[in-house]
Specification:
Shape: globular
Order of helices and strands: EEHEEEEHEEEHEHEEHEHEEEHEHH
CATH architecture of the largest domain: 3-Layer(aba) Sandwich
Helix content: 25-40%
Number of domains: 2
CATH superfamily of the largest domain: Nucleotide-binding domain of ferredoxin-NADP reductase (FNR) module
Number of helices: 9
Largest sheet: 7 strands, mixed
Length: 284
């Protein structure tokens, strides 16, 4: 059992947790993740380690409540316990002094981009962060990234904050301005990562994405996280999660991620109906 030290919503349906896990906090590196099981009968889900505090022995995860398990997790609060937290898993981000490094986070993907942006800055890179959200309310970790970046650009789809448009438009604007960009990291929805890859491809800019396929055990045993990179099958949990963006088959990845859409929707509806019933009982 892993105790939750703190839990707070940082955006609609997006919650940041500090979890007591001293061994993981000591070993984790940027880009790695944990597999979490909320309770004895819960499913296993992968979540990136956004940060850690070795003195306190805690790790930070950021959870967007969109499915049954993430909705259940976001009902937990300080003092509650999570049944299982396994990690750190996956390969750490490859970090070196590239020169000028751009970290791009779309929506909750910013939570995954953040630790790598920190590591890139610590390695001596000139770091630029581009983060986006549907609206101002969905922009996360801006203050944290300002501390870890030389420049931060914020985009919103509706123009309610920062620059109106998509993260790829801001990336293209930097390229068009003549800025020399040596490395790009992009993390977020699959269409966004694909768009970033296509933006940098003509310029030969080294670009890496962190993939988010269906995952069960996180050790390469189940094969659920298969993806195609450079026309070869990889297991994202052990071979990644980060890969050369210009070699990823995004179409196959997107199709595989939709395999259980019907089942996921049914499970989500079940928990939402339960919550409504429970709330109605409390209000009687």
């Amino acid at each position: 059992m892993y105790r939750i030290i703190s839990a707070e919503f940082i955006a609609p349906n997006i919650k940041r947790f500090e979890i007591e896990a001293p061994k993981i906090a000591k070993k984790r590196q940027a880009g790695q993740f944990v597999i979490i099981r909320a309770n004895e009968t819960g499913e296993r889900i992968p979540l990136t380690i956004a940060d850690s505090n070795t003195e306190l022995g805690t790790i930070s995860i950021i959870v967007q409540g969109i499915g049954k398990t993430t909705l259940e997790l976001n009902q937990l609060n300080s003092g509650d316990f999570i049944r299982d937290v396994v990690g750190p898993l996956g390969k750490a981000s490859h970090i070196e002094n590239f020169g000028t490094a751009v970290s791009i986070g779309g929506g909750v993907g910013t939570a995954i981009a953040y630790p790598t942006a920190v590591a890139l800055k610590n390695a001596g890179n000139y770091t630029i962060s581009i983060i986006g959200g549907r609206s101002k309310d969905f922009v996360i970790l801006e203050d944290e990234l300002k501390k870890a970046s030389d420049e931060v650009f914020v985009t919103t789809d509706d123009g309610s904050y920062g620059i109106k448009g998509f993260v790829t438009q801001q990336l293209q604007a930097l390229i068009d301005s003549g800025r020399k960009i040596d490395f790009v990291l992009a993390i977020g929805p699959i269409p966004m990562m694909k768009a970033v890859a296509e933006t940098t491809r003509p310029y030969g800019i080294k670009t890496v994405v962190s993939l988010n396929p269906i995952m069960v055990d996180g050790t390469g045993m189940c094969g659920g996280c298969r993806a195609i990179v450079d026309n070869k099958t990889v297991f994202v949990c052990v071979d990644g999660p980060e890969f050369d963006a210009h070699k990823v088959d995004f179409l196959t990845l997107e199709r595989r991620n939709k395999i259980y859409n019907v089942e996921e929707a049914a499970a989500r509806e079940h928990i939402c109906n339960y919550d409504k019933m429970y709330t109605n009982e409390l209000n009687k």
